[in-house]
Amino acid sequence: MTHVDSPQSQVRFAAARADITPPLGIYWRMWGAATHDHATGVHRPLTATAAVFEPLGAAALGDRGDRIALVSLDHCLLGKEEAELVISTICKRCSLLPSQILLTFTHTHSAGLMSLDRVGLPGGKLIPPYLQRVAETCADLVVAALEKAELAVITYGIGRCDLAQHRDFWDEVNELFVCGYNPERHADDTVLVARITNASGKVCGTLVNYACHPTTLAWDNRLISPDFPGAMREVIERETGGVPCIFLQGASGELGPKEGYVGDAAVADRNGRQLAHAALSALQGLASPLTRFEYQGPVISGATLGEWRHTPVTAERAAETHTWRRSTEILAVPYRPDLPTREGTQELLAKYSVDEELARKANDDLAVRDAHAMVERQTRLLHRLAQLPPGSTYPFELHVWRMGDALFVAVPGEHYSYLQTNLRARFPGRIILVITLAGGWGPSYLPTRETYGKGIYQESIAVLAPGSLENIAAEIAWRIEGLLKP
Predict the structure, then answer these.
(1) How far is CA 35 from CA 29, 221, 225, in A?
(2) Are 206 and 191 in contact (CB under 8 A)?
(3) Residue 348: which domain range?
(4) What is the β-pairing status of strands 245-249 and 203-210?
(5) Quick one: which H or E segment has residue 86?
(6) Does the global pTM surpass 0.90?
(7) Is residue 296 part of a domain?
(8) What sign does the CA torsion over 105, 107, 109, 110 have?
(9) Is the same domain home to 364 and 404?
(10) CA 362 to CA 256: how far, in whole Å?
(11) Cα dist. 84→27, 79, 80, 91 in Å?
(12) pLDDT of 6-57, one tens digit each?
């Protein structure tokens, strides 16, 4: 090889950001083990960021059919009804189709549970107007991004960060699996980064795609927080001129920070800085836009040296980076045969509610906390079952698109990291960004086939049949092969 091409895309791009921090009086309890309903302060503001990507020539043709509006919220997730509110509001304002809007989440677990089924709880009346404000803000951001979209070159790179660790841990003493740091299992440490540069050579945005649950802060925390993505963005934006850094949550179903489940916001900031420095290292190593690293020949010195230089890409190579292809489909994925019923869940809810009341009468605070956590678990399950589409299969919405040398995969739910590691192994050398929770939680967790039946939390609340993750990965791979064909 006498030259090395950097993976790049040429598109039109713009991004816009706004504050969406909820008011302190709003119902906020997220963790089952928490004993408080409201936050007492704000660690860092929550934000919404809209990024518009469109193929070259779309603006001149007046064609918005291929535009993609990626909207990232500093929230754990939104349910079906809540997500549809945001998406429909954007569609009405921007003349876009729902399939053109990718609503994603940084997945922080310290933003509060903004669900409409919580309206009757303390502070719950503030949830509907808050969600409406978020929806209107997102529409404003997409409008702003569409108006200022400009020619841009996206250059991609790969870094490594060991912030994320495996979190399916076998507790030998109590003989059960817990969702916590497992030092004996490998975790995917891939950090995919992208630097977006406009025609004048100025950086106008960055992307960081990494798989790790933002669960640094947990039941003891009382501050609204974006968790580690907040500090990560701050560090990267400080080094890149203040342009938006967009965090894209990868397939992190079984991955979380080594140090997590704490109440100290300083730990979340430390975790964020760790990821930021890994991402910055990769960003610093990126080539200049539309260049390749090319061998220049020998240079006679004390030794005969080989000279390499960054040189402009050829016209043919530049044309390759214009490529824009999309595949958006609905897969029929079967539900698990032992899917919980609403009747059985309601019986468990009644039982745990009685346990909680008895514990309160006995002034047993620990028993109250545990019983309430089980009440919360069954309440959420009932809400999730009510939102599942009827029938024997789940309509799984799959987005795969190619922008130049990069492939973006966006899927609903929380997938084990098998999804990204398998796809990247199938297509070595390709840049594949995997974005989970697209559109919301939807199908819940998608663990690997061998995980089923072990009592692991993620599997216990999964609604799709064993093997669904592997089958979805195969379906995605088939579509990627089609997008890569000449």
Answers:
(1) 8, 10, 18
(2) no
(3) 342-387
(4) parallel
(5) helix 80-94
(6) yes
(7) no
(8) negative
(9) no
(10) 36
(11) 21, 8, 6, 10
(12) 999 999 999 999 999 999 999 999 998 888 999 999 999 999 999 999 998 7
